[in-house]
Amino acid sequence: MVREGRGGHLKRLNLCMPITLYLANDTSARAAGADRLAAAWADVPDVHVVRTSSRGAFFLEPLVERDGPEGRVLWPRAKPDDLARIRNGAGGISLAEVPFLAQQQRAVFARFGTAQPLSLEEYRANGGWRGWERANNLPPEAIIAEMKSSGLRGRGGAAFPVWHKWEIARRTSADQKYVVANADEGDAGTYCDRMIMEGEPFRLIEGMLICAKAVGADRGYIYCRWEYPAAAATMQAAIAEVERTGMLTIDKHPFRLEVFRGAGSYVCGEETALLSSLEGGRGMVKVRPPYPAVAGLHGKPTVVSNVLTFGTVVEIMARGADWHAALGTVGSKGLIALQLGGRIRQPGLVEIPFGATLAEVLERFGGGMAEGSRFKAVQVGGPLGSLFPESQLHIPLCFDTFNEAGAVLGHGGIVVFDDQTDMVELARHYMTFTADESCGKCTPCRIGSVRARELLERIEGGSGTAGDLDLLADLGDTMKATSLCAHGGRAPYPILTAIEHFGDEFRRRLPSNGPNGTADRRGRNVP
Amino acid sequence: MNVTINGQPVQAEPGETIYAVATRLGIAIPSLCASVHLSPYGSCRLCLGEIAGLKGLHTTCSLPARDGMIVNTESEQLTKHRRNLIELYLSERAESEPLGELSDLAKRYGVTQVRYASGARRAAVRDESNPFFVFDNQRCISCARCVRACDEIQPAFAISMVKAGFSIRPAWGATGLNSQDGVASSTCVSCGACVKECPTGALTEKTILEGGRPTNRVRTICAYCGVGCTLEAGVRDGRVVSMVPADDGPSNQGHACLKGRFGWTYNYAEDRVRTPLLRDGTGWKVIGWEQALNLIARSFSRIKEQSGPDALAAISSSRGTNEENYLFGKFIRCVMGTNHIDNCARVCHSATVTGMMETLGASAATNSIRDLSDAKLLLVVGANPTESHPVLGARLLQLAHRGIPLLVIDPRRTEIARAATIHLQLRPGTNVALLNGFGHVIASEGLLNRTFIEERTEGVEDWLATVKEYPPESVERLTGVPAEQIRLAARMYATSGASLSVHGLGVTEHRWGSHGVMALCDLALATGNIGRPGTGINPLRGQNNVQGASDSGCLPTHFVGYQLLDDPIAAARHESLTGRPLPSRRGMKIPDMWDAALDRRLKGLWIIGYDVAQTDPNLKKVREALSRLEFLVVQDLFVSQTAKFAHLLLPSASFLEKEGTFTNLERRIQRIRKAVDPPDGILPDWQVACEVSTRMGFPMRYGHPSEIMDEIAALSPMLAGVSYARLEQPQALQWPVPDKEHPGTSLMHRERFARGKGKFVAVDYLAPGEQASEEYPFVLVTGRLLEHYNCGAQTRRTDIVKLVNSDVLEMHPDDMARLGFNKDQLVRLVSARSSAVMPVSSSDRVRPGELFTTFHFPDTDVNSLLSSSADESSKCPEYKVSTVRIEPVDLENLDPTDDAKRRVVRSRIKAPSERAVAWVAGDG
Q1: Which residues pair with A253 in a beta bridge?
Q2: Once rounded to an integer, what is the mean pLDDT over residues B7-25?
C-alpha cells in the first residue's frame, strides 16, 4: 500500500483517474465539518469536490459520496485523512445500507444529496421544472382543482387547505397580487425549509410560479429569516439564474421575485406579522379578518405559504394529485417532512406518509436514544408544542389526531429530551422564549407570558407555592383562549403538558409548608 | 343584515363589525382598545365573543357582521377570561390612582385582588413636553388607541409603538424612545385626539390634572373657526376644566384642533376686561354699567341729532351670536334708520358673497361637510385647511390617503399641497387666469356637461368665448403652472363624476376676488359639479359665526336672510314687527366707514368683537380714521388694539358664558350653551344692545335669546322654520329651513339654483393691485398658522404661545442665501405704506421672490404694510398680494420699546434641509 499522508496523494497522482467526490454545502453539514474536508482536499489535483444539497441524515455528516457502478457509495462522518480510503473505494456503504434513508418515502427530498443546488440544468435533467411546465399549460382553475384533489394542507403550522387559500386569492379582484414564501422557519429544531432553499432553490421558485399562475400574481417575495444567510444568498443566485434564462415568466409576463431578509423576530413567522415586516413596518400581528388572501401585502390579495408547501406543490403538479391523495391518512393526505433532533441517535430529515406513530418514528428513524441517554419526553411542533411522555408515543402523526389531543404537528419539528432534562427548567425556558419573542400587542401574551415566566422562575428557584401551579393553569387557560395568535395561544402547552406528565418535578420544588400552612396567598388587593 | 347578539335580533349595516353594531344599538360589549373612530387592533381581548359555527373566540371589534351570524358575548368562560385579563393589566403597575375605564371594568367584573406577587412593572416614563397634556406610561395599557388616532384621524403620525413584548409603549417623535420630551420634538399638532381616545388617563389634559375632573358637561360649539365643532365643556366648581369634542357633532364627529380643544383658557386670562372702562387720558377709569349704557345712549343720540343718522355706524362681530348680530342690525335700522352696519365678512369672504350671488343666487356652501366623503375628487383653491380649518383639513388628508384624488391650487407648498395628487403652484394673483385655463381645456376637449348646461344654466356662450383665449400654454406663461398640469387637472375635475371644491381667502382676498369666485363657479356649472352630493362650491368661512353675521342681516346691502333692502314683502314684515320702516338705502361698508371717518363725516362708531386696528389692511389709514372719531365704543373680551382708540370699552361675555347660536360654514345653525357665569356680572352683548336701544327710545326686551331667534325666523323665509326647540337635536338645522316641518337643507341648488338658472359670468384675468418692482421686489402673502387664530387675541392668551410666540417671515433658502440672512435674524419689511420688523426663517413653503407671514402678533404690525387695494365689488382687501422689500435690521437702531429681539422664535416652520437634519438629529 502506498503510504498515506500529506504527500501521499501527490505520488498517486500519476497512477489514478480523477475522481469526483460529492459533499453537501448545507449549513448543518458545514457545521459538522464539510467545509474542513473541502478545504483539506481543495488542492488535490485529481480530486474534484462537488458541493451538493444534503441528504438530511445529519448523523452521517460530513458525508462524502462517490458514484459507483450501482449508485452512490457513501462515507459517513468522513475526515480529511479518509481521502485515500475513499479514493480506493474502501469502507463505503450503499444507500440501501442506511435504513434511515432507505425506509423513507421521499418525494420533495428525493433528489437531495445528488445535485448541485445552483445548476438549473441538473435540476431539470433530474426531473425538476416538470410541475411548472404542466401548470403553465393549464388554466388557473385547473391548477387549483389539482390542489383540491390532492388534499394538500399547509405545512407552516396552521394546516389550512392550500387550494382554498389559492382560490380566495384568485377570486378576489385586484390590480396587483402577491405570492409570499414564509421562509422564517423560526422553530428551533426545524430545518427543512433551510434545506430546500440551500439545497434545491429552484424547487421553491417552481412552486411559487405555480401558485402565481393559479392566483394571478406577478410578484413574489421570499421572506427569509435573518439567521439563514446562506439560504438567502442561494435563493438570490437561483432567482438570478432563472431570470437569466428568461424562464421567470408567466404567460410571457415577467414574474418579479425577490428575497427579503427578516430581522430576528420569531413572531414574523406568523403571516400577518411577516407581511407587516415585509412592508417595512414593525413585525406585529394583525387581526384577521381580513385574511391575507383577500387583503394582505399592501392591502392586496396575497398567498403566504410555507417553503415546504411550495415544494410539495411542485410534486403534486409533476406527479398528479392522485399520487398525493393516495398517501397518508383521510384527514392528512400526502407526506410529512419530520425534522428529528435532540437526544436521539439519528437526527435528520424524515419524509414519510402521514399516519406513522411518534413511537415508530423515534425508533425506526431516530434510531432510539443517543448513547447513554434514557428517553424522557419529546416535543413536537416547535417550542410551543406539547410534550409527550413515553406513555403517549402511540399517537399517529396527523393533523386531526394531534388536534384532538390539544397538540400540533406545526412545522414537523421533533425534539427528544432525555432523563437529564429538568422539566421545570425546560418549562421556564420555553415561557421565557415566549415572553422574549412576544410582539406585545395582545394582553394575554404580552403580560401573561411575563407573569407565567415569573411564576416558573419562582418555582424553579424553590420559592413557588401550590397556588402558583393553580394560577399557571388558570392563566394558561386564558392565554390559550384569548391570545391574538398562536404565539400566546400555544405558549401554555409546553408548560402545562410538562406539569401534567412530570408534575412531581414541579411539586418537589415547592417548600413543604409555607409560613401560612398550605397554599400561600400572594398578591395584593385592588384599591 | 340580520344578526343576533346575546339573543337579541339586530340589523347590521354592510361593513359594520359586531362591536360597531352593538355600540350603535347600546348593547354593551366590554373593551379597552376598541373605538368606533379607529380601525380594530385586537389588543385587550375583552370584546371576545362566541360565534355559532366558528371555533374558538373572536374579537367582535374586528369581525365583520354577516347575515345570520349568532354572537354571544356573555358567558361564564368569557367572564372568567375577562377577569384574568383585567387582573393582568392591574398587575403591571404599582397600586395607584384610578385608571379610568380600566378601573370601571375592574369594579364591574369584581376584580378586587391581583394574585401575582411583585414582578415586572411598566417603566416610569412621563412626557410633559407638550403644553396641554401629559403622557404617563404607568397608567398606559399599550392599547395603541393614541397611535391609531394620530394615524387615522388627524393624521399627524407623531406616535409609534416602541419596544416589543411586555415593555411596548407609545413614544412620540424621533426622540421619544430615549427621552421624555418626545411630544415636543414630534409632528404632533396638539389636536388632542390621543387624549380623548385614551381609556385610562395615561394621556390627560394638564388643565384636568390641575383643576380636577369635570362634574358636569355642557354641550356647545367652538368659538374659533367656521367648522363649528361640537364640544363638551367640562365644568367643575363653576370653572371650565376641559373641552372635549362630541362624537355626534355633525361637523366634527369627535375631532377637534388644538385651538378648540386646548385654546379656551383665555377665558380666564388675567387681562380680561371685567368692567366698563371710560377713557381717561391714555388710561382708563372704571365706571358702572348704568353709567356706561347711559353714556352710549346719550352720545349716540347727540351725534344723531347734531350730525344726522349717517354720522353713526356699527361694526358687528362675526364671533358673536346670530341673536347679537341681529340685534345690532336692528338697532342701526330701527334706532338710526340707516343700514350702516357691517361685519368682518367684508375682509374675508365678501368676494364670495358677490361672486356666488351673481352666479348662483346664494352665497354659502352649496354642499355640506359630509359631502367630502361622497366626492370622487377634491379641489382646494386658495385655502390651507390643515391650518385654518383643521378638522376639515384632517378629513381631506384622510381621504387623500385613501386614494381620493386631490388637486390644490396655491402659491405655497402647504401641508395639503404636499398631500395633493397635483399641486398647481401658481403665482399670487393669477387665479382667474388659471381657472380660465381649466375652462379652456374642458371646453376644447369636449368635457362640457352639455345636458346640465342646457337645462340648468344660462350665459355659457360668453364664457366659452372668454376661456377660448386661455390656452394652457399662455396660462403657463402667466401663472407659472406647467401646461400639462393644467390639462391633467382640468380633465380630472371634469371627468371624476363628482368633484367638490372648497375655497378660501386665497381666492377672495384679492383685487379681483369676486372674479376668482365667479371663475370657480363657472367651472362647476360647465361640468355639472354642483347640485349633487359630493360636489359643489364650498367657501370655507373663517370665523365661527361669520356666516351667521351676514345671515342675520349685519350687512349694509342686505336684510336678514339676504333679503333685498327694497323688497316690499321684507319691508312690510319688518314694519309690522318693529313698528319702524326698513331703511332702503344701502349703508356704508367698512372701508367706506374709514373714508367717512377721515372726512369726519362719521363721528360715532360702535365696534363689537372685531380688532380692526390689527386685522384690517392699511392699518395706518384705519388707525388715523379711528382717531378722528368723536365717540368710539368698543366691546371686547380684552383691551384690543382697537380699544386703544376707544372712548368707552365694554366687557363681553365669552361663548362659554352665554346662550345663543352660531352658524358654521355649511349653513348649520348650532346652539351654544352657557357653561359658566361671566365674571363680575358682565352682560352678554345682546343685552347690551337692548339696554342701549331702550335708552334711546326704542325699547328692546327679550327674556331669552330664543325669543330673538323666533323674531329672526319670523322675518326671514330662509330661516322661518328655525327655533331653539328644533335646534336641540344633535344635527341642528342647515338653512334654508322654509317652515317648521322642513328638515333643513344639506344640499342646495338640487333642482334649481337660488336665482333660477345658474349664470355663467365670464371674467378676464386682470393684474393684482401691486406688482413686484425694483423698489419692492418681493411679493408678500399673509395668512395664518395652525396654532394661532387671526389677531391672536384669544390664542395668545393661552399656552399655545409655548408653541409659537412670534410672527415669522418665511423666505425661500435661495433668497436667504442671496441676501445673507441667517435663521431667526431680525429683518425689516418695507412697503409703500409702512414697515415691520420680524424674524426671518428659511422655508420650503414659498418660492424665490415670494414671502409669507402671519398677523397673529400685534407687535409685528404686519397689516400696516398692506395697501387698500381691494376687490372692486365687494371691497374685500387684497391681503394676499402685497409687494415689499427686505432690509437687514441694525439692532442698535431698533426702537427700544420693540421687544422683537427678545422674542424667542419657536415655530414649526422649517426649510427642507433643516427638516431632514432635524429628523436625523432627532429634534423633530
Answers
A1: A250
A2: 94
Amino acid at position A512, single letter: S
Residue A188's CB is within 10 A of a number of other CB atoms, namely 14
Residue B712: partners with Cβ closer than 8 Å, 6 or more residues away: B322, B323, B326, B552, B560, B719, B722
Q: B157 touching A, CB under 8 A?
A: no
Q: pLDDT digits over B88-121, tens only? A: 999 999 876 679 999 999 999 999 999 998 799 9
In whole angstroms, what is the distance from residue B48 CA to residue B588 CA? 67
CA distance A466 to B281: 87
A288-305: per-residue pLDDT in tens? 999 999 999 999 999 999
Amino acid B879: pLDDT: 77
Q: What is the largest CA-CA distance in chain A?
A: 91
pLDDT(A123) > 70: yes
**Looking at the partner chain, which of B40, B43, B106 has a beta carbon nearest the beta carbon of A443?**
B43
Select the residue of A440, A458, A471 nearest B115 (Cβ to Cβ).
Answer: A471
Determine contact: B65 vs chain A, CB below 8 A: no
Average pLDDT over residues B815-823: 92
Q: Dump pLDDT digits (tens) for B367-376.
A: 999 999 999 9
Question: Would you state the pLDDT for residue A518?
Answer: 42
Q: Does A162 touch chain B (CB under 8 A)?
A: no
Q: Does B38 touch chain A (CB under 8 A)?
A: no
For chain A, what is the mean pLDDT? 93
**What are the DSSP calls for B46-99, one per residue?**
TTEEEETTSSSEEETTTPBP-TT-EEE---HHHHHHHHHHHHHHHHTS-S-S--
Residues in chain B closer than 8 A to A446 (CB atoms): 142, 165-166, 168
Q: Which of B60, B79, B87, B147 to mutate to test the interface with A (most CBs of A within 10 A)?
A: B87
DSSP A434-489: HHHH--S-SHHHHTHHHHHHHHHHHHHHT---HHHHHHHHHHHHHHHHH-SSHHHH
Residue A54: all three cell numbers together: 444534503
Q: What's the rounded Cα separation, in Å, for the pair A391 and A394?
A: 8
Query: Which backbone phi and psi does A490 adopt, to 5 degrees?
Result: -95, -15
B123 part of contact set with chain A, CB < 8 Å? no
Contact across the interface for B80 and A478, Cβ inside 8 Å: yes
Query: Does residue B80 sit at the A interface (CB-CB below 8 Å)?
Result: yes
pLDDT band at B672 (very low <50, low <70, confident <90, very high): very high
pTM of this prediction exceeds 0.95: no
Pairing of β B341-343 and β B631-636: unpaired
Q: Of B57, B85, B159, which to mutate for an interface test with A (greatest number of A Cβ within 10 Å)?
A: B85
* pLDDT score, position B350: 75
Asked if A441 has any chain B CB less than 8 Å from its own CB, the reply is: yes
**In the block, which residue shows the cell 359630493?**
B534
Pairwise pLDDT comparison (B907 vs B411), residue with the higher score: B411
SS3 state at B766:
coil
Q: Cell for B296?
A: 352710549
- CA-to-CA separations, B134 to A73, A489, B354, in angstroms, rounded: 73, 35, 47
The lowest-confidence range among A428-442, B164-178, B188-202, B526-540 is: B164-178
- Of the candidates A335, A337, A365, A332, which has an alpha carbon nearest to the alpha carbon of residue A353? A335
Residue with cell 397556588: A467
Cell 399641497 belongs to: B417
Give contacts of A285 with chain B, Cβ < 8 Å.
42
Predicted confidence (pLDDT) at residue B918 exceeds the cutoff of 50 = no
- B604, amino acid identity: G
